[in-house]
């Protein structure tokens, strides 16, 4: 069973890539499993994966911590995938996680060589983030840099949003910064570059001897600067409401609440209604919300919100509540489920192996 670990900062496109690749790899009958992962539970990514993968793709989730701190659960999930006959497993790490080479890849290679062959550690980058986090020397910039440094394969994603010259410049910049990695360009949305990436995954092994030095105090400080909110809301309306317009309204209000100075990692909403799933994302304060999946109108629905932004969790919870309660012009009533609002705690990997 071949395992591909996908890392990269919040909103870089890990889930989109994982699901597009799962569909493409599974098209010839290859059995594929995908694993989502988050510090909290109630995951938008799992909701989208379960709705978006074709039958035959098994979806597992690991909640409450990243792969490195939940290594034993990862091992169990891999055993389950193997028992289900999976030949390829695609696993998405938490977007604020780094040091995967030392804490996940190397231990799997050392301890579970008969269970999995680990393919290249693949780190996705949104070109827009190269310009902000990529040049920042604060703790989040440090975390972003460590994610790149340990990659076997860096994937410049969302190339449909920039022109060819910008793709070439960003590719050169990444190659200079991480000379040990192979750099690929991808649009997970259009599929450009996907077959080449899948080919890389099938042939190259993870170097795994590439653990890089990581200052855990800075890594922890970067994670702790982020507020994390996972919450489910029950929505009802007297007349059918447009779930897509509601999602966009929430995200636009949230963006206005945050302003431009607070770094937004990723705000995503999945609305489940009898008519189907609607899903929207906002990956930066400087961008507009994007509707990824749209279903028809509904009178009752369940909205799962996962928001990560650089602000205290309690303040983030209030900002999200303001946005949700204000959305829909008073026509949509929203009742909050319990909020899981927190800042990720100090990373404590179960294992750490490697040369450094
Ligand atoms: N234009 C464009 N948008 C993309 C592409 N890949 C992903 N996106 C969008 O970027 C947003 C975030 O994508 P996700 O796949 O959820 O990102 P992620 O890295 O899994 O995010 P987290 O799990 O929160 O860290 C969504 O709105 C996607 O549709 C791409 O190739 N092109
Ligand atoms: Mg994701």
Description:
The relative contact order is 0.17. α10 crosses α11. This protein starts with a strand and ends in a 14-residue tail after the last strand. The chain folds into 2 domains: 2-222, Rossmann fold, CATH 3.40.50.300; 227-342, Alpha-Beta Plaits. It is of the alpha/beta class. Helix content is 35%, strand content 26%. The structure holds guanosine-5'-triphosphate (GTP) and magnesium ion (MG).
Explain briefly what this protein structure is:
With 356 residues, the chain is an alpha/beta fold. It is built from eleven helices and 15 strands.
Give the CATH level 1 class of the largest domain: Alpha Beta
| Unreliable segments of 5+ consecutive residues | none
CATH architecture descriptor of the largest domain: 3-Layer(aba) Sandwich
Number of domains: 2
Radius of gyration: 19 Å
Question: Any chance you could write out the topology, listing elements then pairs?
Answer:
Blueprint (H helix, E strand, L loop, with lengths): L1 E7 L5 H13 L5 E6 L6 H9 L5 E5 L8 H13 L4 E5 L7 H12 L5 E2 L3 E5 H5 L7 H11 L3 E5 L6 H14 L4 E4 L8 H10 L12 H9 L2 E15 L1 H16 L5 E10 L2 E7 L7 E4 L4 E12 L3 H14 L6 E4 L3 E3 L14
Parallel strand pairs: 1-4, 1-5, 1-6, 2-3, 2-4, 6-7, 7-8
Antiparallel strand pairs: 9-13, 9-14, 9-15, 10-11, 10-13, 11-12
Helix pairs in contact: 6-9, 10-11
This protein binds guanosine-5'-triphosphate and magnesium ion.
The site of magnesium ion has 4 residues, from helix 1.
């Amino acid at each position: 069973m071949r395992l591909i670990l996908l890392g990269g900062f919040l909103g870089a496109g890990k889930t989109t890539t994982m699901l597009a690749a799962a569909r493409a790899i599974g098209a010839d009958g290859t059995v594929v499993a995908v694993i989502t992962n988050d510090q909290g539970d109630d995951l938008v990514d799992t909701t989208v994966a379960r709705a978006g993968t074709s039958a035959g793709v098994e979806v597992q989730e690991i909640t409450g911590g990243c792969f490195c701190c939940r290594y034993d659960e990862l091992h169990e999930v891999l055993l389950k995938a193997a028992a289900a006959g999976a030949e390829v497993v695609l696993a998405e790490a938490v977007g604020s996680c780094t040091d995967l080479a030392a804490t996940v890849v190397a231990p799997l290679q050392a301890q579970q060589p008969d269970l999995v062959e680990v393919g290249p550690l693949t780190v996705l980058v949104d070109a827009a983030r190269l310009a902000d986090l990529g040049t920042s020397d604060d703790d989040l910039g440090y975390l972003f840099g460590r994610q790149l440094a340990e990659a076997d394969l860096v994937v410049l994603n969302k190339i449909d949003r920039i022109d060819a010259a910008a793709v070439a410049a960003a590719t050169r910049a990444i190659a200079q910064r991480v000379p040990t990695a192979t750099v690929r360009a991808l649009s997970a949305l259009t599929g450009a570059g996907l077959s080449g990436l899948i080919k890389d995954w099938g042939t190259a092994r993870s170097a795994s001897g590439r653990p890089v030095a990581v200052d855990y105090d800075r890594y922890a400080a970067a994670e702790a600067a982020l507020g994390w909110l996972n919450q489910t809301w029950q929505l009802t309306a007297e007349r059918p409401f447009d779930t897509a317009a509601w999602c966009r309204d929430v995200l636009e209000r949230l963006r206005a609440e945050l302003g431009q100075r607070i770094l937004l990692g990723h705000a995503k909403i999945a609305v489940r209604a009898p008519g189907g799933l609607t899903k929207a994302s906002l990956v930066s304060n400087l961008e507009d919300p994007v509707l990824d999946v749209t279903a028809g109108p509904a009178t009752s629905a369940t909205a799962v919100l996962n928001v990560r932004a650089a602000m205290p969790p309690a303040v983030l919870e209030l900002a999200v509540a303001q946005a949700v309660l204000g959305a829909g012009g008073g026509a949509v009533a929203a009742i909050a489920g319990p909020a899981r609002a927190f800042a990720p705690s100090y990373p404590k990997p179960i294992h750490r192996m490697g040369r450094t």
